[in-house]
Design brief:
18 strands, tm1086 (SG structure) fold, 278 residues, mainly beta, 11% helix, 2 domains, 6-stranded mixed beta sheet, Thrombin, subunit H
C-alpha cells in the first residue's frame, strides 16, 4: 500500500544545557540534529565532520508530535520525497534513514537543491514499504525498506538463506542508544565507537553515512536484543557522537533471529552508490 505523507524541513536543535559532555569528559558545542545540512550527504564519512549526531541532507518531521509518529513509522528508506513549497518546489529526493529520540526522517537532495530550500518547506513522501514481507522467508523480516530499494539491494536467495552485500560488519556488543524499544519500525540505534580495539578490528572509524552494515548477534525481530547467531542488516542514518552510549546510528532493514542472512562484505554497499545519488 502507498500513502502520501507530509512533513517540514526541521530546524537545527541543541541540547538544553547547550554543552554536551562526551564520554571523554570534554564539554562541546557542536552542530547536531535537524536542519538543512548542505555539505553532509550519504556517501560521506560518519566521522568526517566536527558535529554530533549529524543528520545528512534535510531533516524532516511533522510539527504535530502525534502525526509525526506516523510519519516516522511509515516513511521508508528509498521512498521518493518531493518538495511541495518554496523555491525548490517540485524537486525530488530520497529518504535515507530515521533518527529516534528526536524523531526525524532524513531526506537526501543534491546540494544545489538544498541551497534553494528554507526551514519549514513542505516535503511530501510517497510512503510505501511498511509491512513488506518476503514470501516463505522463515524468520527473515524486513523493516523500513521501500520495495524498489529492496530490489536494488541485490539480495540473493538459496532456499531459506539470504545473502546481502554490506560495507562493514559490526559486533552487537558495541550497540548502544536505542536498545529497549519494542519495535524497529521507526528510529535507530547507535554503534558505540569508544573501544579502540574493536574500532580497529571492524574498521568502524571508516563507516560512511548510507553504508549497509551487518550487526552480528543482533535480533531486531520484535525490538533490539542480543541473540547469539542472529543477524541484522541496517543502514547508517546519522553521524558519530562523543556522548557515552552513542555513535553512528543505524536504521534496521532486515533481521533473522536464526542467522539465515549471510553478509557479503563489499565496500560499494552504500545508498549513494546503489541509488546513484552522488
Amino acid at each position: 500500500m502507498a500513502q502520501v505523507l507530509s512533513g517540514q524541513a526541521a530546524p537545527p536543535l541543541l541540547a538544553s544545557s547547550l554543552y554536551d559532555v562526551g564520554a571523554d569528559g570534554v564539554p562541546r558545542i557542536l552542530p547536531s540534529v535537524g536542519g538543512i545540512t548542505l555539505n553532509v550527504r550519504v556517501g560521506d564519512g560518519a566521522f568526517a565532520f566536527e558535529a554530533d549526531h549529524i543528520e545528512p541532507g534535510v531533516s524532516v518531521r511533522h510539527p504535530d508530535d502525534k502525526v509525526n509518529r506516523a510519519f516516522c513509522t511509515f516513511a521508508c528508506v528509498g521512498n521518493v520525497a518531493t518538495v511541495t513549497s518554496g523555491e525548490a518546489k517540485g524537486e525530488r529526493g530520497v529518504v535515507t534513514g530515521k533518527h529516534g529520540g528526536v524523531e526525524h526522517v532524513m531526506v537526501d537532495f543534491p546540494e544545489a537543491v538544498m541551497e534553494r530550500m528554507q526551514l519549514g518547506d513542505e516535503i511530501r513522501v510517497r510512503a510505501v514499504g511498511t509491512g513488506l514481507e518476503i514470501a516463505d522467508a522463515g524468520d527473515v523480516k524486513v523493516f523500513n525498506c521501500d520495495p524498489d530499494f529492496f530490489e536494488k539491494l541485490g539480495v540473493e536467495r538459496d532456499g531459506g538463506r539470504f545473502s546481502v552485500r554490506v560495507a562493514r560488519t559490526v559486533p552487537a556488543r558495541v550497540m548502544g542508544s536505542g536498545l529497549g524499544r519494542q519495535t524497529v519500525a521507526r528510529g535507530d540505534y547507535d554503534i558505540q565507537c569508544f573501544d579502540d580495539a574493536t574500532v580497529r578490528e571492524f574498521g568502524l572509524d571508516e563507516l560512511r553515512l548510507g553504508d549497509l552494515v551487518a550487526i552480528l548477534d543482533a535480533d531486531n525481530s520484535f525490538g533490539r536484543v542480543y541473540r547469539t547467531g542472529a543477524i541484522t542488516i541496517a543502514i547508517v542514518a546519522h553521524g558519530m557522537s562523543h556522548i557515552a552510549g552513542h555513535g553512528p546510528g543505524v536504521t534496521t532493514l532486515m533481521t533473522s533471529a536464526s542467522g539465515a542472512i549471510e553478509p557479503l562484505v563489499d565496500a560499494r554497499a552504500n545508498l549513494a552508490t546503489i541509488l546513484d545519488l552522488r
